[in-house]
Amino acid sequence: MTLTQDQLGHLERRLEDERARARALLARIIDDRSGSTGQDAAGDLSVAPFHLADLGTDTMDAELDESNATRVSHELEEIDAAIERLHASPDRFGRCENSDREIPFARLDMIPWARTCD
Fold it and tell me: What pLDDT is recorded for position 115?
């Protein structure tokens, strides 16, 4: 059974919502990191950290932000690719890339950019 027009419309809205969410999150991560120095972000009054652990925490926070930005960027690429697939061939959208079986609608509702059944 292929997806109905209502289901396709629902998934298109979900993809657009997820795209907006991912873009906003990515922008917030970038703004948080580029808007202030490490000193400002940590609330330090001096350039030198009070303790080496503070420097380690600052480094860990920066690496975590970079990791999250990378993850969100990849997710955004998947969402954009799903939107393209949906518009290019709506009759094929929701088919598993590995087996050509239908991806369950419940899975698509949770992860509308899903490419596989599992």
Answer: 96
Which H helix or E strand runs over 96? none
Q: How far apart are CA 80 and CA 96, in angstroms?
A: 17
Burial group, residue 60, by CB count within 10 angstroms (0-12, 13-18, 19+): exposed
Report yes or no on 52 lying in a domain.
yes
- Report which DSSP code applies to 49: -
Measure the CA–CA gap between 86 and 112, rounded to whole angstroms. 10
Give me the domain span that covers residue 13: 5-110
In angstroms, rounded to a whole number, what is the distance separating the alpha carbons of residues 28 and 107? Answer: 28
Q: What are phi and psi of 112, to 5 degrees?
A: -65, -10
Handedness of CA 26, 30, 35, 40 (dihedral sign): positive
Which residues of the chain carry a pLDDT beneath 50?
A: none
